[in-house]
Amino acid sequence: MERRKVRFGSAAIFLVLAAVLVLTHIPGSAWAQKRGGTLVIGLEADPGHFNLIVKPGTTVQVPAVNIYNKLITLDFDLNPKPELAKSWEVKDGGKTLVFHLRKGVKFHDGKEMTSEDVKFSLEKCLPYNPRSRVFWKPVAEKVEAPDKYTIVVRLKKPFAPLLTVMGVIFGGPAIYPKHLWKDHVGSRKAFLNAPYSKKPVGTGPFMLKEYKKGSHVRLVRNPNYWNAPKPYADELVIRFVSDANTRLIALEKGEIDYLRAALIPWDQAARLKKNPKLVVLDKGGEATGQVEFMLLNMRRPITGNVKVRQAIAYALDKNQISQLATGGTAKVADGIMHSAMKWAHKGSFAQYKQDLKMANRLLDEAGYPMRGGKRFSLTVTWAKGRGFEGLAAEVIKQQLKKVGIDIKIESFDRAATLKKVYINHDFDIMMQFFTTGPDPKISVTRVYDRNNIGSANFNNAPSYINVGVQRLLDAEWQIPDVKKRGAAWRQIVDMVAADAPVIPLFETPFVHTHSAKWADVVTRPYCAYCTREDAYQK
Amino acid sequence: MAGDYPLLRYSVRRILQAVPLVFWVIIINFTIIHLAPGDPAIYLASVTEATPEAYAELRKEFGLDKPLYVQMGIYLWKLLHLDLGYSTWHNSPVLGVIIDRLPATMLLMATAFSIASLMGVVLGVIASRYSYSVGDHLATLASLAGYSMPIFWLGQLLILFFALYLDWLPSQGMYSMRGVEPGWPAVLDVLKHLLLPAITYATYHMTLVFRITRGKMQETLAQDFILTAKSKGLNERRVLYRHALRNALLPVVTVIGINFAYVMAGSVFTETVFGWPGMGRLIFESITARDYPMILGIFLVVSMMIMLANLITDILYALIDPRVAYN
Amino acid sequence: MTTSADTIDHRSSNRGPQWRAIWGAFSQNRAVPIAGSILLVLVLLVLFAPVLAPYDPYALGSGSRLGGHSFRNLMGVDNLGRDVFSRILWGGRVSIFVGFSAAFATTVLGLFVGTISGYLGGWVDDILMRLTETFMVIPRFFLALIIVAFFGANIWNIILAISILTWPVTARLVRSEFLTLRTRQFVDAAHVIGTKRSTIIFREILPNAIGVVVVNASLLTAQAMLLEAGLSYLGLGDPSLVTWGRMLYEAQPFLRQAWWMAVYPGLGIFLSVLTLNLLGDGLNDVLNPRSSEIHRTGL
């Protein structure tokens, strides 16, 4: 009797245990995402501080996005989704936006986040964000906080891209605690020198624990996070490794758990895919949508000739460029924005299939006959730092040789190159890697806008002026209907393709790579710098 | 033997002589850096994709809109007040960033030099003891090979073999990021990370110490007093080691002192290959980010370290070998 | 290794450029002829690159991407489908050119400063030595990095940067040689006869200092080649030319897929630097028997 009882008891325990085991191993079940573990992320340089307001560069973003929250976020199709704002309405034909905030959200120091903080962040911080102010300043009229959990944004004109750009960290504002920052506003310096540059306090899933200069940043789980049970990881470590090869070895060895696509040498992606310890993704870059371009300087007599530009486009074998410069990982680009932006993308550049006869004919017509196997010389400039641009330049040189164009390659550090190309306009052809998302108004317009030829980085370096294109560029962003806006952009792409002030080469592959021990590391369309609150250890 | 008094006077004189030297170092560095195309503002503006106005504001904030001589004047004036300026990238006082990074480099250097000195001297003494034997020739050739190899190349090979293939040691960084308890496990963890970069760093200097030791030893062994000592029937090994150890100090001091400038150069490669959070990487990162105040600050600090190293070398020389006069 | 009184006498009595002594080095030191011939073969190989290289070193379709050794591609193919063997030949040309040019520039500069300083003495010496000292305490490698990074990574800037890195050592070496030689009897004798200063410098002192300079130059060449490789490794190589350093840099990501991309340029650098060092050592043994170790600096 006694004995039987014991047996029955142990059987029951066994059954319960089995049930637990089964439940915890059903993928996608609520049991699967268990807490624990340290997720180690590789970064190329020490950010110096975590001040997103004035330095929204990648190295700052990667740690900071886990400390702060935005009002909204984006899904993989670039639709806005709730974050700190649980819902919102667009009124007055797009001139007014009303956000309803989540209640009971706490900053890391225990104070509640309210509409006052949001108003402060939008009014006092955003105008100092070198990226966001570009579009924010001309359209914003005022921000109101009618009650503790409502925020009203009034615009001078309807601004179609607003929600999309507010959903990514470099466009939208992170929400900062007013009670800490209010005495540190008014200038870049004031923001930077605030103690919260280095000791950030936000509402985000992780809190800063340790910042070891030159080595790593350690973040720990925010126990009071509003989106519980997230975050799943106990700790997030962001480790600075400047050498690309060392970084990759560390990933393969398991010393680093995640490297974003930009830090994966693309020509190594195929090899990494075969490694069972790693997961190579193909998503998480839709909102940034980067494309590698050749910019042709229209101020120079040779590249100023449309026939020469078209001839160059015809002479290139883009498949070979992608094959050799990125090991075939990058898709050939056929438009002026990444194909992930489906609503506006058009592949008008596909007409330039490699056609050496056509290229030669165009060059003859342009008045540059072949003499002794050579027509003229051009210089290709690229900024040190992105190896694939150097490789691409090398391939382009060989390809253009076939139609009698002699290419010289030059390369300087980033600052010197940018000065030469964008400020002094002293170049023939520039290899340039452009972000084209999350909305073309923010990141595509700048290259073709005649009002942006001036003297800042990433402007209209080719000095491209086309009246038809200009008319569309000036109007498209006020069109609330996405279909009509998309149509306008397709027209723009057609015209730009005909003029060829730029030649798109290939699109960034989204080869974010993480350890197979982790899941859900990449859950946003801008996951070079997205929150890691969803990541959990398998 | 030199007394304390002349030594002190000598040191003070050397330090006073160094003042104008530092001044010229600053002028030369400042001019070269500021004559280059591009500036910190354009780099920062590129990172954040800033507007023309933002770029202009940055230039103003960094004082880059002023004429070069004014900028230089401001910089020198600040230096007089012991202010090395503000890093444009780290947004911290330059001195603070340098002090944060210095210990890592010092640890790496100290370890590497200990390995280099010990191994170099021991091998050097042995090689000179068995002069012109097969072993000696092999050691000499191996030592030549040691500095005929690019240091970064050696580092990469060591990583591939010991970190990736054998999986004995970590490939990069100074700390493990997971599951290390404070106290002894943490110290051990740093040591594990230290080993490969230290060996890489040490190889070059070890071969140098080896060669100098060997040469010096041969010279000494051929001298009359050794021959006399030997002929008197003194234990050969004792003679060797007594004079060896004394003479071995000189090459070690020479290598560390005279080559200090190059020692820093080696740190750029070693620290880049191994992701070591020290000064070598800081300078390279600062150059990439066009962090002018940081670059100038590092130049200044390292220049002063070089001068100090030279001074200490000379003093040590005088102490070890009284025949060396102060001049 | 040869501290024989014989060589020392030779040195002070014979005022020619010590060719016999140099020849002596070759016959006495077994390492020297071996090193010398390896170096000679290397130099000849790269010199005749246009004849020997089966492919254009930049041409893309010379073999299948990352292909291994074959009859068509003796040393395999790199990541852009270029023939590694052809690139080794052409790359060595540039690498060795950089090495020799930088060593030459440094030697000329060092000789110039060292000669003037050492012979004239006085305030000229003071000023020049202050200048040299200033450059000795600047972290010159950092300065070289800045020059190449900020002013553009082309081969001339690289040579300039390497020369800046090394000239002060050479200048001091020449100067100290002059200081010792100046007090020698044969110079005094020349003075007494009333020989012109320039004649004394060029006829009497320089030829005797040449031993130190030659040794130094061979080591400088080795150093310069290593430095070029180092700059390339940091991504600061000339983007339009192939060098061994650049090949090594390009090979880094492919170490595990295509070791041939890295091994051959590495071997090229290693062999030339090693032979140059051996040569320098051997020459030093004979030409400068007083110093048991050369003042050697490097990376």
Structure explained in plain terms:
Chain A is α+β, with helices and mostly antiparallel strands and 538 residues long. Chain A is 31% helix and 20% strand. In chain A, strands 14-18-13-17-15-16 form a six-stranded mixed β-sheet, sandwiched between helices. A four-stranded mixed β-sheet of chain A has the order 1-10-9-8, with helices on one face. Chain B has a single domain (6-326), classed as MetI-like fold. Chain B has helices spanning 4-35, 40-47, 52-61, 68-80, 94-129, 134-146, 151-165, 184-221, 224-231, 236-258, 260-274, 279-288, 292-320. In chain B, helix 12 (279-288) runs antiparallel to helix 13. Chain C has a single domain, classed as Orthogonal Bundle (MetI-like fold), CATH 1.10.3720. Chain C has twelve helices and no strands. Chain C has helices spanning 5-13, 19-28, 31-47, 49-52, 84-120, 122-137, 140-151, 155-182, 185-193, 197-233, 244-251, 260-287. Chain C is elongated and about 75 Å long. At the A-B interface, helix 7, strand 10, helix 8 and helix 14 of A face helix 2, helix 3, helix 5, helix 7 and helix 11 of B.
What structural class do helix, strand and pairing data of chain B support? mainly alpha
Q: Unreliable stretches of chain B, pLDDT < 50, 5 or more residues?
A: none
Question: What name goes with the CATH superfamily of chain B?
Answer: MetI-like
How large is the radius of gyration of chain A? 26 Å
How many beta-strand elements of chain B? 0
Q: Report the largest inter-chain contact.
A: A-B, 62 and 60 residues
CATH uppermost class of chain B: Mainly Alpha
